[in-house]
Backbone:
C-alpha cells in the first residue's frame, strides 16, 4: 500500500497521560506497554499499533485527537500546502527511526499532519477496517468547497458530493478509486463560527454501547447513536479531558 492519500496514524495529545490511557484501554480494549512510558506511548490492538498518545508540551492547548496523512515526499507536500494557502505550524521534524512530519493548518484552520515514514513499505499503518481500529475521518468545516479544493491540490484526493439527508458529504478518494474506497469526507459545520476540525472515527460493534461506556468512564456524549441509512450507526463522544472522537457501527 502506498503511503500517499491515506490517513496512516492518529495521535492523542492530552494533559494527564495516565487517566487518558486508562480511559481508552477500558473503552476500546486497547493496551499499552509500560516500557514506553518514558519515550512514546502507543495504543495497541494485539500487536497492531493503533495510535499514539503524549502529553501536551508546556501544558498548552486543549486535549485533542490529530490525524497524520501519509506522504512519500514531505518536502513536496509542504511546498504544495504553502502554495495552496496552508500554514505549516513548525519546521519539518525529523524523528529518528520513525520518519519526518509537519502539522499543517489548512485555510480554514483545521490541522492535518503530513507524515513521511522511514519505513515506506510497512504493511500495516493502522488502515485495517477492524473493530477497535480507526476507520474514517470527517473534516467539519465552514466552507466545504474551499476545503475540498485545498486537499485536492495538496494531498491529491479527488472528491465526490454525496447527498445525505439535509447535508452533503464530500467523499475524499485516492486517484483512480471510487466512493467504495473513500478514506474520509468533508461536511458543513452545523454551528456557525465553530472552528474547522477533523473528527476521527473508531470502528465498534455497538455505537450506543460504546458511547454509554464512555459516559460511565467520565466522558461526555455529544451525539447518541444515530443511523446513517445504508451504512450503519455513529455516535460522538469526548474523553474526560474533552478530546472528541466518533464511533461507527457498520450495518
Residues:
Amino acid at each position: 500500500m502506498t503511503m500517499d492519500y491515506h490517513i496512516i496514524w492518529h495521535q492523542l495529545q492530552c494533559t494527564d497521560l495516565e487517566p487518558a490511557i486508562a480511559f481508552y484501554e477500558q473503552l476500546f480494549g486497547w493496551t499499552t506497554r509500560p516500557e514506553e512510558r518514558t519515550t512514546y506511548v502507543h495504543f495497541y490492538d494485539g500487536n497492531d499499533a493503533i495510535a499514539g498518545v503524549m502529553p501536551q508540551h508546556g501544558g498548552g492547548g486543549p486535549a485533542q485527537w490529530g490525524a497524520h496523512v501519509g506522504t512519500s515526499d514531505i518536502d513536496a507536500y509542504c511546498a504544495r500546502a504553502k502554495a495552496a494557502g496552508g500554514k505549516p505550524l513548525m519546521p519539518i521534524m525529523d524523528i529518528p527511526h520513525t520518519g519526518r512530519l509537519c502539522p499543517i493548518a489548512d485555510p480554514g484552520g483545521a490541522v492535518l499532519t503530513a507524515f513521511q515514514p522511514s519505513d515506506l513499505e510497512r504493511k500495516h499503518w493502522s488502515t485495517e477496517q477492524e473493530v477497535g481500529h480507526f476507520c474514517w475521518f470527517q473534516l467539519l468545516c465552514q466552507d466545504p468547497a474551499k476545503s475540498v479544493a485545498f486537499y485536492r491540490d495538496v494531498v491529491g484526493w479527488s472528491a465526490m458530493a454525496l447527498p445525505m439527508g439535509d447535508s452533503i458529504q464530500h467523499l475524499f478518494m485516492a486517484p483512480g478509486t471510487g466512493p467504495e474506497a473513500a478514506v474520509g469526507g468533508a461536511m458543513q459545520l452545523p454551528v456557525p463560527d465553530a472552528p474547522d476540525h477533523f473528527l476521527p472515527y473508531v470502528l465498534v460493534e455497538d455505537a450506543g454501547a460504546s458511547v454509554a461506556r464512555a459516559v460511565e468512564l467520565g466522558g461526555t456524549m455529544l451525539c447518541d447513536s444515530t443511523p446513517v441509512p445504508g451504512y450503519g450507526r455513529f455516535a460522538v463522544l469526548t474523553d474526560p479531558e474533552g478530546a472528541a472522537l466518533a464511533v461507527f457501527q457498520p450495518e
Remarks:
- The chain has four helices and 16 strands.
- Residues 134-250 form a domain with the 2,3-Dihydroxybiphenyl 1,2-Dioxygenase; domain 1 fold (CATH 3.10.180.10).
